[in-house]
Design brief:
There is one protein chain. The protein has 303 residues and is an alpha/beta fold. The chain has 2 domains: 3-49; 57-298, Rossmann fold. Helix content is 50%, strand content 9%. The protein contains 13 helices and 5 strands. The chain has a 5-stranded parallel β-sheet, sandwiched between helices. Helix 1 (3-19) crosses helix 2 (35-50), helix 4 (71-84) runs antiparallel to helix 11 and helix 6 packs across helix 7 (178-188). Bound molecules: 2-acetamido-2-deoxy-beta-D-glucopyranose (4 copies). The site of one 2-acetamido-2-deoxy-beta-D-glucopyranose has 9 residues, from helix 5 and helix 8. Residues 255-275 are annotated as: Disordered. Residues 1-24 form the signal peptide. This is Sulfotransferase domain-containing protein. Keywords: Signal.
Length: 303
């Protein structure tokens, strides 16, 4: 049994006994504990009660995501990490996005958050002040800004997110050709890309920049970014064993390992991306200039 699971047992047992609760996938009937085991467990429970705080009792954790720079990936990674450490969805873990589509914003006071399309240097300043001495730990994926608009065009052009009234109002992108669609997405996504660039061009010391391209290109790349992330988030707040478990838990978000986990088909056809990319130089020059500047500030070659 893993250490994380082992730590949960006494609590499950108590819940089962006193509340006849069925917690997670473990029912009371499945586990017939003897007195000696109970004694052992109450001592573990005592240790547990006096054990160090959970990481989210120490810091606030903020995963930030930007449209077409791995939003779904970020949500999956964040949930996997904190779930593996025992955080409770909706209680310890919240989410907010902009606009706030139905069902996508909840638990704004939870210490672990995912913020989508809203984090900017100005918001960072406020969040830092609100966090006070506990401090924030912020992480997010950065992707080549031109790849983001190419991806947005291919994604919405094939009818994805008809409810998205910013990047695909009334499904309008389905009717657009590549140049028109690219230009449309580049305009619509300016605030998103601008805010991503502002946060990550020179990340503050409480903020980790993750590399979208590296994370998605191979499982080795995925693991090395996750090791970096886990080290940054927790330092010595979790054990080596927990660290290994958390890394393992993140791997379900690695589509090179688990292609079937892209359940809503976020991945675009490579042909569409290659064809659309050819139209980038033909975009209105002032708009293209802004994207070239974002690329440069983030260290990407013009593409
Ligand atoms: C970008 O940042 C500005 C300034 O904080 C904020 O008003 C805006 O809502 C943000 N937009 C997105 C899409 O991140
Ligand atoms: C970041 O730098 C500030 C000021 O130098 C310091 O007080 C703070 O502890 C640092 N935070 C982290 C997470 O290293
Ligand atoms: C790693 O995670 C998978 C589920 O994604 C689980 O089946 C497996 O038992 C885990 N391995 C370890 C060593 O924890
Ligand atoms: C996802 O969408 C792409 C682009 O339309 C398509 O090529 C691919 O077959 C789809 N994959 C699945 C699993 O539906």
């Amino acid at each position: 049994m893993s250490m994380l699971r082992a730590k949960c047992w006494p609590l499950l047992w108590l819940l089962c006994t006193y509340a006849s609760a069925v917690v997670a996938d473990v029912s009371c009937e499945e586990h017939d504990f003897h007195a000696t085991q109970f004694l052992q467990m109450t001592s573990i429970l005592n240790a547990e009660l006096h054990s160090p705080l959970k990481p989210w009792d120490v810091h606030y954790y903020l995963g930030v995501a930007y449209h077409k720079a791995g939003t779904y990936l970020m949500i999956q990674v964040w949930q996997s990490i904190f779930h593996a450490l025992g955080a409770k969805p909706l209680i310890d873990m919240g989410q907010w996005d902009q606009p706030c589509y139905p069902g996508t914003c909840y638990a704004p006071d939870a210490p672990i958050q995912v913020w989508i399309d809203l984090y900017s240097p100005a918001k960072a300043q406020k969040a830092r002040e609100a966090a006070g001495e506990r401090g924030l730990r912020v992480a997010g994926f950065v992707r080549d800004p031109v790849s983001m608009i190419v991806s947005a065009y291919c994604y919405h052009h094939r009818g994805k997110e008809l409810w998205n009234f910013v990047e695909n109002p009334q499904g309008i992108v389905a009717q657009m050709g590549p140049l028109e669609g690219l230009t449309f997405e580049a305009q619509r996504m300016l605030p998103v890309v601008k805010n991503m660039t502002g946060i990550f061009e020179h990340p503050a010391n409480d903020t980790l920049r993750l590399d979208y391209e590296r994370t998605t290109a191979s499982s080795d790349g995925f693991d090395s970014e996750m090791v970096k992330l886990i080290g940054f988030l927790f330092e010595d707040l979790i054990s080596a064993e927990e660290r290994a478990e958390v890394l393992n838990a993140t791997q379900r978000a690695d589509l090179n390992r688990h292609p079937a986990n892209d359940d809503d088909n976020h991945s675009n056809d490579p042909d569409c991306k290659a064809r659309t990319r050819e139209y980038v130089p033909a975009m209105p020059s002032d708009l293209l200039g802004q994207y070239r500047s974002f690329q440069q500030r983030l260290g990407y070659a013009p593409s």
